[in-house]
Specification:
single chain; 180 residues; Immunoglobulin-like; 7-stranded mixed sheet
Length: 180
């Protein structure tokens, strides 16, 4: 009777080891699945697109139509594998630059690939108001005074707009005057 129990136990253990081995090996398929292939292709495409963007974070050149340069203070960004997050907008470090009422300002990032998204906001009474812009160009208000702006620019993957290849934000301040 003990021999029968022993053989039954041995047979059960052998069956369990065999089934466990088969279960483990079934997950070790050397042929990638379609999902794996799609992910790998997507990563290759994103890496190809990324290589077209410079590795160094671009610096904005902000200029009025009359040729006045307006300095910007860097804000949060994700670029070239590095990210920095600034908790608040940094207007205190901006020195207002005098420009004429109604002048057009343009933002140029100095790279060949234009951003997919450009959001410019003006801060009035501690509230942000979206500014209408065409490819980073917008018109200053007709009211004299100091005006505070922030800009956010984003470059997306051509294959999937949900994948960001890089983004940057910055602030700048102008003092709008009627004449100089």
């Amino acid at each position: 009777m003990d021999k029968i129990k022993f053989f039954n136990t041995l047979r059960t253990l052998t069956t369990l080891v065999f089934l466990s081995t088969m279960l483990i090996l079934s997950g070790c398929n050397s042929t990638p699945s379609n999902v794996t292939k799609e992910i790998e292709m997507g990563l290759e495409q994103v890496q190809e697109s990324e290589s077209n963007l410079p590795q160094k974070l671009p610096t904005p050149t902000i200029q009025s139509e009359s040729g006045i340069s307006i300095p910007a203070i860097q804000g949060s960004y994700c670029w070239g594998g590095a990210c920095a997050d600034y908790a608040s907008l940094n207007f205190e470090d901006n020195t207002p630059v005098q420009v004429l009422v109604g002048e057009t300002l343009s933002i140029d990032m100095g790279i060949d690939i234009p951003p997919d998204e450009i959001n410019i906001s003006e801060y009035v009474n501690k509230r942000n108001q979206s500014i209408t812009s065409t490819e980073g160009t917008f018109q200053l208000p007709k009211e004299p005074g100091t005006h505070y702006y922030s800009a956010f620019l984003r470059w997306s993957s051509p294959q999937d707009s949900q994948i960001s290849l890089g983004d940057t934000s910055f602030t700048f301040v102008v003092h709008v005057v009627e004449s100089k």
